[in-house]
Amino acid sequence: DKINLFEIGLGSNTQGIEGWMGPNATPGASVYAWSEYFKKGQIYGGDIDKKIIFQNKKKRIKTYQMDQKSKADIDRVFSAIGEEMDIIIDDGRHWPDHNKAFLEYSFKYLKKGGLFIIEDLYLNKHSRGDFVKMHKENLKFAKSNASYADILRLKTNYGKKSKDGLDISNNLMIILK
């Protein structure tokens, strides 16, 4: 389909960058996958690490340096793109306060009927606070601004499991505008 897709979080391999994924990370792997899946789509991405920003005209990919918690950065990037998005994916910093900021500031750039996905929700207590409670607050915000929103708890063979066998880290928040 001819769509516009934006994903925050390109997978930094720069040590010292908040949220770096280690020296063997392959920055941009998921936006390349999206460009292969949506063969007519325009694929955009953003990351806090300016060293991994790239453009690939042949693959229809354009990426931007931005902080997912910065309204000014988000407005600057989406204004530069100049198009509403069909899909926005938050695969950036997997902390509820970062998720909420990005959702709040970027949701207006999503088309009506568009899909907003927040990946890798940690549904447990964390050193940064009670992530379950914080994600439920984010879900309440999403439901008040969308036609549909819910958290999908996944059963996978990957990641840490809760007592009921559900994954505590590979869960999604799905929001339909």
Classify the helix fraction into a percent range.
25-40%
Q: Tell me the span between the first and last alpha carbons.
A: 19 Å
Radius of gyration: 16 Å
Topology pattern, helix = H, strand = E: EHEEEHEHEEEHEE
Q: Which consecutive residue ranges, at least 5 long each, have pLDDT under 50?
A: none
Instruction: Tell me the total number of β-strands.
Output: 10
The largest β sheet comes out as: 8 strands, mixed
Category by helix and strand content: alpha/beta
Shape: globular
The spatial strand order of the largest sheet comes to 3-4-2-1-5-6-10-9
Beta content comes to: 25-35%
Determine the mean pLDDT.
89
The number of distinct helices, counting runs of at least 4 residues, comes to: 4
Structure description:
- The strands form two sheets. The chain has an eight-stranded mixed beta sheet with strand order 3-4-2-1-5-6-10-9, with helices on both faces. It has a two-stranded antiparallel sheet with strand order 7-8.
- It has helices at residues 29-37, 71-81, 96-106, 131-145; strands at 4-8, 42-47, 55-56, 61-65, 85-90, 110-121, 125-126, 129-130, 148-152, 171-176.
- The longest helix is centred in the C-terminal third of the chain and has 15 residues, at 131-145.
- With 177 residues, it is an alpha/beta fold.
- A hairpin with a 2-residue loop joins β7 (125-126) and β8.
- The protein contains four helices and ten strands.
- The chain is globular, with a radius of gyration of 16 Å.
Helices and strands in order:
Blueprint (H helix, E strand, L loop, with lengths): L3 E5 L20 H9 L4 E6 L7 E2 L4 E5 L5 H11 L3 E6 L5 H11 L3 E12 L3 E2 L2 E2 H15 L2 E5 L18 E6 L1
Parallel strand pairs: 1-2, 1-5, 2-4, 5-6
Antiparallel strand pairs: 3-4, 6-10, 7-8, 9-10
Helix pairs in contact: 2-3, 3-4
